[in-house]
Amino acid sequence: MYPFNQFEFDYIVVGGGSSGATLASRLSENTALSVCLIEAGGKDKHPLIHIPFGISLLTRLRYINWHYNTTPQSELDNRSLFWPRGRTLGGSSSINAMCYIRGATEDYDHWQALGAEGWGWQDVLPYFRKSEHFEHGADEFHGSDGPLSVNDLRYTNPLSRAFVEAAGHVGEKVLKDFNRQDRTGLGFYQVTQRGGQRCSSAKAYLKPARKRKNLTIMTDCHVEKVLIKSTEGANSSAHGIQVSHQGMSYTLNARREVILSAGAINSPQLLMLSGIGPKAHLEQVGVEVKKDLPGVGQNLQDHLDAIVQHRCKVREGYAVALSALPKYAIASVNYLFRRMGIFSSNIAEAGGFVKSQHANGIPDLQYHFLPAILEDHGRQIVMGYGFGLHVCCLYPKSRGEIKLRSKYAADHPHIDPKYLTHPDDVKVMIDGVRKARDILNCPTFRRYQSKEFYPGTDIQSDDDILAFIRKKAETIYHPIGTCKMGADSDPMAVVDNKLKVRGVDNLRVVDASVMPTLVGGNTNAPSIMIAERAAEFVLQDYASGRGA
Ligand SMILES: Cc1cc2nc3c(=O)[nH]c(=O)nc-3n(C[C@H](O)[C@H](O)[C@H](O)COP(=O)(O)OP(=O)(O)OC[C@H]3O[C@@H](n4cnc5c(N)ncnc54)[C@H](O)[C@@H]3O)c2cc1C
User: Fold this and answer.
1) How many CA atoms lie within 13 A of 259 on its CB side?
2) What is the pLDDT of residues 443-473, one digit of tens each?
3) Among all residues, which ones are annotated catalytic?
4) Is residue 4 scored above 80 in pLDDT?
5) CATH of 154-188+304-393+420-472, one of 3.30.410.40, 1.10.150.120, 3.90.660.10, 3.40.30.10
6) Positive or negative torsion for Cα 97, 36, 494, 76
7) What is the best residue among 524, 528, 529, 530 to mutate for testing ligand 1's pocket, by most ligand atoms within 8 Å of CB?
8) Which one is the CATH code of 4-45+202-297+480-543: 3.90.1230.10, 3.50.50.60, 3.40.50.1260, 3.30.460.10?
9) What is the distance between the alpha carbons of residues 486 and 267, in angstroms, rounded to a whole number?
10) Which of 295, 368, 390, 402 sits most deeply, having the most CB atoms within 10 A of its CB?
């Protein structure tokens, strides 16, 4: 039990995930400030979080996961898709696949062109570098003094190597580093790991900061809403939060700012629960309107993922099979004593970026190769040996939304990504499946004597491939955009380029929800970069005596 009534802080950061942990750590480097980080989940104690191979079982641990489900998706045979999100210190960086990818330089220049002034590639690169401790040392693209360890994998499976070697057969390059200018090709991913263990934002940023006297980290505290004061003739302003802990509600006051870092689902949910959002919707669910902001919860984007899967006769890869047990026994000893071997693998070891026939200059497809058979995000056990190539459409044009189900914070919001509602996304996905197939049929895989079972060799026409996608595609876990950053002239922009909520003082949003459009890649590194930048904005305002 925390002594809530005695607490008051300069800054309250809501959500201890990729962005929130980074932000709270950076703010509390200034010892003159008091900072409180509030996390709905518990401490990141479970060993499966820290052992990279543990990712194969993480979706089964209910208590570190929000276990969201989307609304039925009309273009995916009316299926509700499972959306795991981290609910523990480190947030989704404690349950993710650890692939370290920033996206294309063009992605950030595109943000700027859309109205996110000051967020072009040259503006954001210093913050990627600032966050990073790159194993191979600093250079123009990488940093070596930051808290986030970025390493090569300590172990790669022969099947993943066969995937990378296939590049030459399909006219692609082999790349050593996807985080440079040229990233078209196949290769192994760099991973957020340190010493063979996961390096989440909690490990990178909170561990070194947690003994600071000016940083309070509160876990198992579910924030229910931001407290907003309305003053006649002036902007409303945030002055604290309402939080539930062990079944009781408390309030906490913020002297300077409340900062939402609750992720692309929960940040817009919290804004709406606090009366900030589309007026008609708030009235419909019975929330008192404090600020009509039509963009809150809109502009939801995500990477949809289809898997081409093979079964193989040769016993290679990470199988669920009795015959694999001796291998796992040796691997556990190897990991226990040396932090090496199979258990240091993130499973999604290799991948790449390629152009579909519809691409506009830069790769619009991303691959993740898994030397294992995967069904239902690992929640379903599939016996036997095999491998699969995940393909996703990097720049979907479909736009979805998050809406409140009720005015109660405990109720999961409606999550409707509206996958494939734009016809161009369909075309890119179909071409992506064809290209993935070509790779898995390369001679480099021949020695494993494999056979495709998804989509299945009889599935050849565009219509049949689309039917397969509708039946089987899932998320690859990159929701963004629901509190998008944009120019004053954009009525759908929720935050400005300093991440301040429009029309509400002392309130910012700092997480994946502020991205105006998806980056061409995974979203952990960009979420951390956003928080690194935000920390500077907040500290500059503090130094100049300005509020949010
Ligand atoms: C299974 C999975 C695999 C992924 N793989 C990769 C990968 O390999 N590489 C990559 O770059 N990206 C990956 N991602 C995506 C990446 O991890 C996320 O984009 C990133 O973590 C988002 O950061 P965030 O700070 O916006 O949100 P999060 O990290 O999700 O943090 C939000 C935090 O807020 C807390 N919170 C929410 N609501 C409340 C509330 N009301 N009160 C208090 N606390 C609250 C949550 O519990 C959570 O800790 C993956 C994601 C998942 C789920």
Assistant:
1) 34
2) 999 999 999 999 999 999 999 999 999 999 9
3) 478
4) no
5) 3.30.410.40
6) positive
7) 524
8) 3.50.50.60
9) 17
10) 402
